[in-house]
User: What shape does this take?
Amino acid sequence: MKDTLILGIESSCDETAAAVLKNGREVLSNVIYSQIDLHTVYGGVVPEIASRKHIEKVIPVVDKALQEANVTLSDLDAIAVTYGPGLVGPLLVGVSAAKSISMASHVPLVGVHHIEGHISANYIENKELEPPFACLVVSGGHSHLVVVKDYGEYEVIGKTRDDAAGEAFDKVARAIGLGYPGGPKIDKVSKEGNPEAIVFPRAKVGESVYDFSFSGLKSAVLNYLNTCEMKGESYNQADVAASFQKAVVDVLVDHSMHAIQEYGFKKFAIAGGVASNSTLRTAMEKACSKRGVEFYHPSPIYCTDNAAMIACAGYYEFQKGVRSGLDLNAIPNLKLGER
Ligand code: KG4
Ligand code: ZN
Assistant: This one.
């Protein structure tokens, strides 16, 4: 059978990325231009700066991805592009580039949901993984507990009421002087700290057992730091980081295991930038193995934003017959499962 080649393009936040995948799960190239250094001085992503940088980088990044995969535009079966959710300016750059390339090369276009991309990152290295399974998507913009019923078929059973998990990591990291992006830095310094040193709250959200709330936890950390300052006492950065991280991980594990038990899943995956957190991975692995549940996670490079995951999700949409027209638009608040 003829191989199916998909070019993926991702630009929803601060990574300009392009990748070529063969038959959905074989990565021929995965090029990521990260803008992190540009935004670090501002302590977070500045949308206008991100958009301008995407414009500058998108074509060189696509060219590099094609070159490294040793393919030309005419070899492609489809171009998959993130069209939401995300920052509208950055999204528009990727969508416009994908539409232009599609029009010029007569290659079909497939719009992909960013979270579907994150979930699909699990397929790349776990060749045997197939739906149905449950997936916890934890990134800078999202904290979703999702039932993956089939390829492209999702049911969101829980999500954050306020801050996303990664957002909480970033805000707490800034407060304790670690800088942006906070997740990897908290992950690292936590190894030197005591996770039991400070008891931060594990938020419960009303009657909704699967929803998350992280803003209360973030405030509790800020209050703790303020109290220390007012008393003229210093605080232990590593202890605060480790205790905060433990509180986040406890809630994520608790909700996920609850869902696994209720729905009777035998397979569970994590995805998104926070899924590369070492404490979260270890805790999930342990909790899953205790329950006889198979645990899946992508390598760190496929956890944070990349285009291989978009090409992978695009492959399954393409196989199902999904095609986008040249009227495809960026949808900053696109819901999972909507088109
Ligand atoms: O998936 P991603 O690249 O972008 C979004 O779609 O939002 O996730 C970025 C987020 C940031 O908030 C970053 O701090 C967090 O993922 N992150 C981590 C780790 N690596 C990245 N959080 C905790 N531990 C990590 N090791
Ligand atoms: Zn993402």
